[in-house]
Amino acid sequence: MRLVLAVLLILTSPLALAIQVQGEGSSFEEAKQSAFKVAIDQEVGVILDTERHLKNGKIVHNQILSYSAGYIISSSLIHHIIIRDRNLHQVTFDVTVASSLLKDFVLSSNHNTKSFNIDDIKAQTQSSK
Could you write out the three-class secondary structure of the chain? Predict the structure, then answer.
């Protein structure tokens, strides 16, 4: 019985992916968050939604939205440089990212990529959590 439970736990646990990423910002925390965003975007993926409105043949509204979901399981600082004259922090982290239900949802479903409804995907992802 314990063996069956252990196998089920392993099979249902999110896949963790380890990578090395870089980030930069005006503070250490901002650089760290930038690196974490790169890690999640790179390993989990990003959904892009564009919206463009034309009036008399001219663009009056142009918007690009991106959405990604995942979380950092662990991180280890590898390198941190402060460039004082530019007030810039550059960091390198080893990061372990948990796979997201968003990636699984998008890759496993037969979606017509031309008709993505970002609100529906957000709602389905939230309900999965």
Answer: CHHHHHHHHHHHCCCEEEEEEEEEECCHHHHHHHHHHHHHHHHHCCEEEEEEEEECCEEEEEEEEEECCCEEEEEEEEEEEEEHHHCEEEEEEEEEEECCHHHHHHHHCCCCHHHCCHHHHHHHHHHHC
Q: Report yes or no: 106 and 120 within 8 Å, Cβ to Cβ.
A: no
pLDDT of 94: 95
Number of Cα atoms under 13 Å in the Cβ half of residue 93: 26
Residue count of the chain: 129
CA 1 to CA 10: how far, in whole Å? 14
pLDDT, tens digit, 9 for 90 and up, residues 70-125: 788 899 999 999 999 999 999 999 999 886 555 555 555 555 555 556 666 666 65
